[in-house]
Amino acid sequence: MKKVNAQVLILGAFLESIGASFIWPINTIFIHNYLHKSLAIAGIVLFLNSILTFLGNYVGGKLFDRIGGHKTTIFSTLIALMALIGLIFNHGWPAYPILLPILGFGVGSAFTVINSFGAQIDEVDRYKLFNSIYVGTNLGNAIGTALGGYIADVQMTLVFVANFIFLAIFFILALFWYNDRDIKKDKATATGKRPKTKLRPGVSMIALFLGMTWVSYSQWDSNISTHLTTLGIPVSKYGLLWTINAIVIVIFLPLINHLAENKAWFKKIQIPLGVFLFVTAFISIIGATKYLSFAIGIVLLTLGEMLVYPGIPALVSESTPKSEAGRYQSIVSMAATFARAVGPFFGGLIVENSSYNILYFLAILVLVSSLVVFRRGNEKLETI
Q1: Phi, psi for 179 (deg, rounded to 5)
Q2: Cis omega (within 30 of 0) on the bond before 195?
Q3: Rounded Cα gap, residues 159 and 156, in angstroms
Q4: Cα gap 305→220, rounded to integer Å
Q5: CB–CB of 220/298 below 8 Å?
Q6: Helices 356-382 and 325-353 sit at what angle, rounded to 10 degrees?
Q7: Cβ neighbours of residue 106 under 8 Å, at least 6 residues apart?
Q8: Residue 3, φ and ψ in degrees, nearest 5
Q9: How many CB atoms lie within 10 A of CB 290?
Q10: Domains and CATH numbers, the chain
C-alpha cells in the first residue's frame, strides 16, 4: 500500500462530496413530497443528520490519532456504505430517518480524516493543499447537485445507487492509497497510552471564529433561497447561483494557490480579506430586488469562502502537533458542522420575526465581530 499523498486526498474529497451531494439537496423534498411528512418533521430529520455528522467529525479525529488514518477511513466508509445499502432497498418511513444520520456519521468521520492527513503532509504548501481539497469538495458538490435532481426524477432509488458507486470508488482508493504516514510520536503515544494534553492556546477561538462565519454563510444555502422566491425569482435561477459558485472557484483557484504558495504576506491577510468579502456579499443584497444583485453577491461570497475555509485548517495544522492532527482537525470540522446545522434555524427565526434585511444586517454584525475573535485566536497561536 502507498502512503497517502496530496493527490489522492484531493481525489478522495472529490469522490466523497460528489456522492454525498446526490442526496442532501433533495432531503427536504423527499421527506415532504415522497414520504408525506411535514416540513417540521423534515427539519428534525435533517437536524439529527447534522448531529450524527458532528459526532462523526469527533469520532473520526479521535480514531485518527489512536488507530491511524487508514483504519479510520475504512471503518468510516464501511459504515456509510452499509447505510446506503439499507437505503437502496428501503428508503421508506422510518428507515430513511434512521439510515440517513448513520450515513452522515460515516461521511463526517471520513471527511475529518482527509483534513487530518492533510495536516501531516509537508511536501506541498499546506495552504495550497487545503485550497485544493476545498476545491475538490466543491466541484464534487457542484456535479452531484446538478445530476442528483435529474436522477431523482427518473427514480429515487438511483440516487442512493449513485451515491453508493462513488463512495465505493472512494473506499477502493482508501484501501490501497490511504496508508498512514510516518509521524514521530512520544513513547507514551507509541505504547497506546496517550497523555492528556491541554488544548493549544487559540484553537478554541479559531473554532469559534469559524462557526460564526458559517452561521452567516449558511443563510445563502437556506433562507436566501426563500427570499428569491418571494421576489418572484424561480428556483432554477437560485440553483444557477451555485453553478456560478463552482465556476468562480475553478477560475480563481490557480491565482489563490500561487499567492498562498509564494507570497508570505498573502497568508497574513488571506482570512481577514475573505471575511471582508463575506461582508460585502451581504451588503450587495440588502434591499435587493433584482437577480443581478444576488449574482454579484454569490461571486463575492465565493471569493471569500476560497480564502477563509481552506485557510483555517491550514492555519491550525501549522500551529499544532502532527501526532494530534485528528484531534485538532476534528475541532475545525465540528465547529463548521454545528454552525451549518443551527445557522438556517436562527436565520429563519429572524426572518419570521423581522425581515430579510434585518437578517443580512445581523449577519454582517456577526462577521465583523468574528474578526475580533480571529485576531485574538491568531495572536495566541503565533505565541506558541
Answers
A1: -70, 150
A2: no
A3: 5
A4: 12
A5: yes
A6: 160
A7: 56, 76, 77, 78, 79, 80, 81, 83
A8: -65, 145
A9: 11
A10: 1-181 (1.20.1250.20), 200-384 (1.20.1250.20)
- Return the H-helix or E-strand segment holding 261: helix 235-262
* CA angle in degrees (0–180, nearest 5) for 61-67-73: 60
Q: Each residue's pLDDT tens digit in the chain (384 positions)?
A: 568 899 999 999 999 999 888 887 677 778 877 888 886 788 788 889 989 999 999 999 999 999 999 999 999 999 999 999 999 999 999 999 999 999 999 999 999 999 999 999 988 888 889 988 988 888 888 788 778 777 877 888 999 999 999 999 999 999 999 999 876 655 545 455 555 577 888 999 999 999 999 999 999 977 888 788 889 888 778 778 877 888 898 888 888 888 887 888 898 899 999 999 999 999 999 999 999 999 999 999 999 999 999 999 999 998 898 889 999 999 999 999 999 888 888 888 898 898 999 999 999 999 999 999 999 999 988 765
Grid coordinates belonging to 63: 480514531
Largest CA distance in the chain: 64
Question: Against a cut of 0.85, is the pTM above it?
Answer: yes
